[in-house]
Every structure is written in C-alpha cells, then in structure tokens.
Amino acid sequence: MSQPDVSLSPLPSTALRVMSGTQLRTHGVPPSRVAEQCRPGGAWQMLLPGVYLLHPGPPTGIERLHAVLLYAGRPVLPAQRQDSAPYGEAMVTGLAALALHGFSVAPSLTALEVIDVLVPRTRRLRSTGWARLVRGHTLPPAEEITGLPVAPAARAVADTVARYDDAQLIGRLLAEALRGGHCDPGALVRELNDARLLDRPHVVSAVDDLLAERRALAEGRLYRLVRDGDLPDPLWNVDLRLPGGPHLGGVDAYWPEQAVAVELDTLPRHSALGRGGPHRDEGDEDAEWSRCARKREHLERLGITVVHLTPRKLRDSPEQQATVVRTALMAAADREPPAYVVVLPR
Q1: Residues 9, 19: Cα–Cα separation, whole Å
Q2: What are phi and psi of 248, to 5 degrees?
Q3: pLDDT by residue (tens digit) across 283-301?
Q4: Is residue 224 pLDDT above 80, yes or no?
Q5: What angle do CA 31, 41, 12 make, to 5 degrees?
C-alpha cells in the first residue's frame, strides 16, 4: 500500500507537482522522506537526478520541461537556495522550445524523446535520461512562455538544426521560421553562422533560397502598396548615376519628379551570405552597413529623399508605410531642387 503524500508548507501558487530535492528540503521534507515516497508503489517518483514528480503516473509535457530546467539549473553548491531562480541560467531550446513558440513542424511536448536545455559552457553537468544539455559560449536573454525560460526562436532553430542532417526537415524548419514571422532573418542567420552551421551546403542553400524568396515577397508587397495606396507609378529597380560621374547605387523604386527613392532593407542576405562567404566577421558586416549608409547619405546630400522599408513593416502595416511614402512625395514641393541624376534600369 502506498504511503500518503507528505504535507508540504505552502507551495508556490503556480508550482506543478515537480520539485527539486533542494526545494523539498526548503519545505521541510528530508531526503529520507523523499526516498520513502519514491519507493515502488509510492506516491512520488524521481524523474531526473535530484528532481521529483509529486504524484504517480506519467508526467505531462509541461512537467517534463520543469523537471529538465530544475535539473539543469540546480545550484552548483548544495547550500545555495533555488527559491528566487530555480532554473538558474538554464532555458529550454531545440524542438521543445520551437513547440512552445508555436512551430507546427515541432512535435508535441509529450512526444519528445529528448528535451534540449541551454546552459552556460562552464556548467559542469551531464546529459541524462531525456534531459540533453546544450552548452553555449554566450546565452541569449530568455523569453518567458507559459512561465518557463525559453530560448528565442532564432537560437532554438539553430540548436535544432545542429542536431539533424535531414535536408527536408531543415528546409521545412527554416521555411516556417521565416515565412511564419517567428525569426528576424538577420538574427536567424547570425545564430546559424555563430553555430558554424553555414558550413553545411544544404543549410546555406535553404537559407539563401528563403531570403531570396523573402525579398521577392517584399517586392510584391511594395508593388501592392503603390497600387492600393493610389500612389503614382515609380520607376522600378533602377540604378542612379551622376551625369558622367560615379554610380550612386540601386534603389527599389524611384519617383524622378519628386526625387524620392524607396529601398527595401534586406541586408541580412548580403551581409551573411554574400561575397564574403558564410563566415564573414563583424568587421565585414560593419563595412557592409557603412557602405549602405554612405550611399544613402550621398543620395540625401544630392536632394534625393530615401525612404527605408523593411519586409516586416510592409507585411504588418502596409497602409502606414504607404502614408510614409505619400508624405515624402508631397513634401518634395517644399524642398530645394535636387541634383540631376541619370536613371538606368538595374
């Protein structure tokens, strides 16, 4: 016959029936009582070393996540308390994190055979059971989902891609990350680059195709913005030059009478996967940004107004972006006449 459940001093109001040995001691439950409760047929069970489920039967998906975090975030020294930060710096990552972020490609939490948890590289703890530790040189700020610390979507995607060689799965995962708006493309590419995953040809190919697709989608939204916003037709995808002078750069749309240009800010494609290769360092990326900034400043000095639109803004607030462009066109009459530039097809 199983022993009755022990009486615990008030549990945290949001606590599931998962606690660490340290927490149980804080509530006055000695190790001997824990061992008694975890005997065969007892009311409790040990899920992971030092982590206990305070009811019989299988744990739920959320209880498994709490257990993994308690195991990975337990104090380095037994005397350290876990009340204020029971999970330490640990956070859920990998497929479990993607499930919490709402990725349809991720299986349900209860179906996961292994749960990845991100911890500092210096953490001296081993993977065990269904708790798999992922060590990181630097940890991103965790996001809170259902009360749990979870790696941002871009980091969770990179940690998942690192575990698999299935090109189709990786393609679906990256497609959902970008098409579904879960990740900023720049953040995703940086995480893949930092994890040295852009050495893998199928990863590079998938990212490159998706970012090219993203730009094409942004261009399509820009066309619709002009049409639906009842804006005058611009010259599309043109290069600007000074007469007999240097090349000023390309723009996505240009209204020559008003000297207004629109640029789509899709720099992640060029900065991460451009001519410098997949492992361009921060200096190369800064140089790319500086080059773009110099071009924009040069155009502004010539009297050309440059409106910067991001794919996300075009997707989420097209009417607001149409107002921005319309305002720039209307303000042209109040500006000094711009310098004459030559417009060439790009």
Answers
A1: 13
A2: -95, -20
A3: 455 565 667 778 888 898 8
A4: yes
A5: 50
